[in-house]
Specification:
The protein contains seven helices and 14 strands. By secondary structure, it is an alpha/beta fold.
Length: 306
């Protein structure tokens, strides 16, 4: 009786081992067959839904397969290349945020590409030009440029070597560029933003020839309603030709300097600053010829002060 039980156990082990071996053989065979299949087609797909595209299919294919007559994957076994290596190779392109390659059940190679989105165009003091996205990534110009973005001049920073102060400046650039791009009035009115040596900003506008001083502030939602209220006021009094500069740096106040005024500027480097980058209680620059001092109330109504 004991011998029969032992025999049954041995037979049972043998049967299950044979089944396991058979399954393993089938799996290996299936994998080998799958790897022996040929690539039927290649599709380049862009993930984002943007109104512009800085990349095209030809550029993607050229980056992956420089010699397309010899290296194009169509018709080759689907194990022709390391998919991971191809993804990393594609991501070397500064305009590509992410790349994902895979084969579907029909052996089509899908190349999914996510493009970086620039938010500002920057000009260096030497006259060179680049784009920047919201992660401070500097992007080269392309022949297919079709986008209109806020323009910043005198950009001097190499992002890879940026200090904390440089990072703060780039954050303000991105913040201001995104704010302008979302506002139809500002997008139409702002021609360029100049970066001064002290990292303060000033706007050059399309209408009028005034320079709009923003200082080192970054609370755009507080600054620009004042500017829009002022522009309504200037338009109503036909005052576009009166002023050479508009200063928005002071709390609840706009200082307009008339043309040909002799103006004595306070040295701001000697003043304490708050979290916004300015001293809200700092004295207004002292004019020899008095500027127009406009008070902005809580409803953004402009009131003239002497």
């Amino acid at each position: 009786m004991i011998k029969k039980k032992t025999i049954f156990k041995i037979l049972n082990i043998i049967v299950w081992a044979a089944i396991g071996s058979g399954v393993l053989v089938l799996l290996v065979s299936a994998v080998k067959k799958e790897r022996a299949e040929r690539c039927s087609n290649v599709l380049v797909e862009f993930n984002e839904e943007q109104s512009f595209r800085m990349l095209d299919e030809a550029e993607i294919m050229s980056a992956l397969f420089p010699d397309q007559k010899r290296n194009h994957p169509k018709g080759k076994a689907i194990n022709f290349a390391d998919i991971y290596s191809l993804e990393k190779q594609l991501e070397k392109n500064p305009w590509i945020l992410d790349a994902d390659l895979f084969f579907d059940q029909q052996h089509v190679l899908h190349i999914m590409v996510s493009q970086r989105t620039p938010v500002a165009r920057l000009f260096t003091p030497e006259g060179n030009s680049v784009y920047m996205d919201n992660t401070f990534k500097v992007l080269p110009l392309k022949a297919s440029d079709v986008i209109s973005l806020p323009v910043f001049t005198n950009f001097y920073i190499h992002p890879a070597q940026a200090s904390s102060a440089d990072s703060a400046l780039m954050s303000r650039i991105v913040g201001l560029a995104e704010y302008i791009s979302k506002d139809k009035f500002l997008k139409a009115q702002v021609e360029q933003i100049n970066i001064n040596p002290d990292n303060s900003f000033e706007l050059v506008t399309q209408v009028g020839d005034q320079v709009v001083l923003l200082g080192s502030r970054s609370d755009w939602e507080n600054l620009f309603p004042k500017l829009q209220a002022l522009y309504t006021h200037i338009n109503n009094e036909d005052g576009w030709s009166k002023y050479s500069s508009i200063d928005l740096q002071f709390k609840d106040q706009v200082v307009c300097i008339k043309k040909q005024s002799i103006f004595e500027v306070v040295n701001s480097t000697t003043l304490p600053i708050d979290s916004l980058g300015v001293n809200p209680n700092a004295p207004i620059p002292q004019p020899i010829l008095a500027p127009t001092n406009l008070k902005i109330d809580s409803k953004n109504k402009v009131n003239r002060q002497l």
